[in-house]
Amino acid sequence: MGNIKEVPYDKYIFEVENQLKSEGLFLSSKGEKANTMVIGWGGITIFWGKPIFLVPVRKSRYTHGLIEKSGEFTVSIPLNRDLKKALAFCGSRSGRDFDKFKECNLTPIPGIKVNAPIIGECPLHYECKVVYKQDMIPANLDAQLIQKWYPSPDYHTFYFGEIVACYMTE
């Protein structure tokens, strides 16, 4: 994997936030096979005295089942690498139908502390173990948000992943 340099989880928090809002982040997990998808919501926060990567995954997504079974995921951040095409593809196709790693020439590299891959082409990685999950309760959500974001009732599960490793790769 080349050089691995541990970094504090919050060192690149603004870059992560900007990438999340602009093009999205790679969220990867592994079951029978590995898969990656793109998230545009979520973020890094603190719960229970731990650094947490909060990731929302719709129940219809292939990755949802992988995280449900494994309880683990990684988030890989392109930072200044141009992975727009891969992000667009991985954000619009299902891992049920495509091997996204092969289709986008992305290199799945085994995580260090979790059994989920990181994306070799990205320089920044978070490895996470789910410490809490919560399915959305539609009755608790503002009706205008339901109208805008959930025209078909495909709600998210929020996964609170304790960040167990954060590092840069070359």
UniProtKB/TrEMBL annotation:
InterPro entries: Flavin_Rdtase-like_dom, Flavoredoxin, Split_barrel_FMN-bd. Signal peptide: none annotated. Pfam families: Flavin_Reduct. Residues 31-168 form the Flavin reductase like domain. GO terms for molecular function: FMN binding; oxidoreductase activity, acting on the CH-NH group of donors, NAD or NADP as acceptor. Coiled coil: none annotated. PANTHER family: FLAVOREDOXIN-RELATED-RELATED (PTHR43567), HYPOTHETICAL CYTOSOLIC PROTEIN (PTHR43567:SF5). Belongs to the flavoredoxin family. This is Flavin reductase like domain-containing protein. It comes from Caldicoprobacter faecalis.
